[in-house]
Structure formats: structure tokens, C-alpha cells
Amino acid sequence: MSSQTRKFPDGFLWGGAVAANQLEGAYQEDGKGLSTADVSPNGIMSPPDFSMTQFNLYHEGIDFYHKYKEDIALFAEMGFKAFRFSIAWTRIFPNGDDQEPNEKGLQFYDDMIDELRRYNIEPVVTISHYEMPVGLVKNYGGWKNRQVVHFYENFARTIFTRYKDKVRFWMTFNEINVLLHAPFTGGGLLFEDGQKNEQDIYQAAHHQFVASALAVKAGHEIIPVSQIGCMIASMITYPYSSRPDDMFAALTQDRKTLFFSDVQSRGYYPTYMSNYFLENNIDIKMENGDLELLQENTVDYIGFSYYMSFVASTAPEHEAARTAGNLFEGVKNPYLQASEWGWQIDPKGLRTVCNQLYDRYQKPLFIVENGLGAVDKVEVDGSINDDYRIEYLREHIKEMKNAIGDGVEIMGYTSWGPIDLVSASTAELKKRYGFIYVDRDSQGQGSNKRIKKKSFDWYKQIIATNGDDL
Ligand code: BGP
Fold it and tell me: Active site: which residues (predicted)?
């Protein structure tokens, strides 16, 4: 492949990505209401604690709410072109169904966005990232209730209108497909018997599709230059062997993910899913006009996160291993190493995913999360030598570059957690992703001081050379 085709385009959006609930803290300040993250002390895969008796690190985050100027200055020093963050719904509508937005919440993001723009950093906003007002869970039952669509649309319209001159890039829901795996975090869903119930999950998904389409419609009206994307957690699945049954199992597993981007990007329910609903007695209630709305308001780009790949096997001896390893389920891939948390490291998988998504949708891709969660050690001299993180990122960026060489259109790359923040799956600060270390532990102890890791200068150099100097 010639180096001419393997080049990052001018204007490529290099940067980092975060979520409000994982770094802001200040969970009750300036009129903010309680969000689902505020009642999830053990992370996205665990049940909530509405009594709030347990210590919850999300309440404090890394205090970005007060320290954002200092942190953004560090991102600017690295040369960030883009910064992806979410707007906490509960700062704007504390209970979700409030008549008027909370001015102080709106002002916070105004100030934060202005700070980014001062450094020419493009804000990329996720409207909903793994949280919703607890009021919408308690009083409406979360996303299985159609009324929540209206509250979300109102929230989206409010922020489009407020930030219309400052924000072009938007995303409707973070990792929308994670609703299947973490229904409380993804959809505010609770099940009486504690057992996941697909009827409620897919009904909630339909409501989110409608809400997403309404947001795309409103966003395009209010901000004609806006680009509004979907965001999926990509979970590419390999067949364990060349047995045809394994191949089909991998295809079936992939469809659980791609279903979400299929609806948001192609604008209709794929037949494989409609048939699945029929066969499993899942009855999705739709309103007149829903299908037209989905069809007419598809997303402009495909945003996705990529951390690892998965394996499907139909061999009985692998059944036992299904829950081990990766975050959700899957068989161990004998060809791959894994992170300390069992996430299987697979840079080449990123190239494959890019090709797969681009073949399928023919829309620009935006890699909005990628990174290595690891335990970092502060040396006696205060340095943090995270060579393992550099290695992980370098290999992934190389494969992203190869995908560009394959002809895939990629808009940008925002690595996950450019500054250490609270982990979504563990609710701790042990699993770190940052180029910037935060002196704070999982109990919330520490000076909160920011320290540059070795990867800080490395990433700075990547951006300065637009990915030439890998
Ligand atoms: C994604 C989420 C993020 C983030 C990341 C890393 O699924 O969108 O919110 O946290 O994964 O996961 P973790 O923090 O569990 O290591």
C-alpha cells in the first residue's frame, strides 16, 4: 500500500472523549438533579442503590466541574482538535420532566464550550451518555415509557438552541446497543424479578430510535451545519473455528450490535430483527408515523467505540467459558492478549470494524472511544511510564490508518479518557485511561493534582504530525 493513500486527511479530528457522570463530580451543585449514575455505586453492570447508602465515586468524579479550565489547558497543550463530552441531562432538567431548564446548568456548558473554543478545540457533544434523570425512572419507568421520548426531545431542542452557534458535532446516545447488556444504565429499566426482559428492552430501544430521529430532525432544523451521529459500542465477533455453525453464531452475535446502527443509519428495521421479534413473541408498539420518521431522519455519521473483539463458538466445551473474559460474554481468543480486566487487545480488529461499518453504511466514521484501561504506577521521581498505553494506542492508530488506506472515510479519533476518570464498569479509579494522571483513588482520597504521563508527549507528537510520526 502506498503511503499516499495511507494518510490522515487534513482537518482530522484528533482528541479525547469523556462523559459528564464519570468526571464532573459536583453531583448536587447549582441545581443538578440525581441521575442514574448517582445511584449506581458499583458501575453500569450492577444494580442501582436508590437509598444511596454506599459510597459512590461518581458523586465526586475528578472534580472537572471546578477544574475544567486547568484540564482543557492541558488538552490544548496536547494539540487537541476535538473534545467529546456529554451534557448531564440532570444539570439542565433536574427531574427530567421540569417545565423550564436550569439556567445554571446551561451556563456551565456555555462556559466550558467557550473555553474549548478559545483554543480552537471543536466540541463534540453526546446528548445522553449512560445516564438519565432518576425522576424519569421512578415516575415513568425509564425508556420503556413513550413519554420519555418527549422529555428527551425537549432536552435535545433546549441544548441545540442554546449552543447552536458553538457546537456542530453531536451524537444522540452513547453506545446505544449497551441497552441490551446494561438495561438500567442504557434505558433506566428495572425488572421486577431481576431478570432481563427482552420485551421491555426492545420497546425501550424503539423509543430511543424515535427520540434519536427526532433529535436529528430538530438538530438539522436548528443548526443547519450540524452533523449528528449515532454511537455504538462496536463488538465485532469472530467465529472460533471455520465450522459453519461458528460462522453463523458470529454473524448472529454481530447483528445484536449492528441492529442499532442499521435502524439509525439505514432508517428501517432489518428483517432479521422483525423476524426475531415474531419468533420470540416480542411485540413492539409503534405509533403512526414512527417508521417514516426513522426513514427520514437518519444519522450523518457513524460514531463508535472500539476496545476489543469477541469470539463466538458453538462447541460445547466452550460454553463454560462464555461469561469469562471480555466485558459481556464470549470465548477467549487464543491469538490475543487481554488487558488486566480481560478485554482482548486486537488492533487489527479496528481495521476490520472500520471496513465492515463503511461497507455497510457508506457514511463517514468517527472513532469516538478507544483506549487501554490499566493500573498506573507513580515512580519515586513522580513520573508515570505508561509504555503499555502508548503501545496499545499506537497499534490501533496504525490500523485506523490502514483502514483509511482501504478507502474508509474517517472523520476523527477521540481516545477514551484523556484524563483519568471514573470507570464505567467498575466505578473505581483503579482502571485508568488518561494521558493525564489524577492523584485520587477509588475511595476519593488524594490531592486531585494532575500529572502528565509519558503518553502525554507521545500523543502530542501524533497530533502535531497528523499521525505521520507513529
Ligand atoms: C465505554 C463507555 C465509557 C467508558 C469506556 C471504558 O463503554 O462509553 O463510558 O467508561 O467504555 O469502560 P470502563 O470505564 O469500564 O473501562
Answer: 369 (nucleophile)
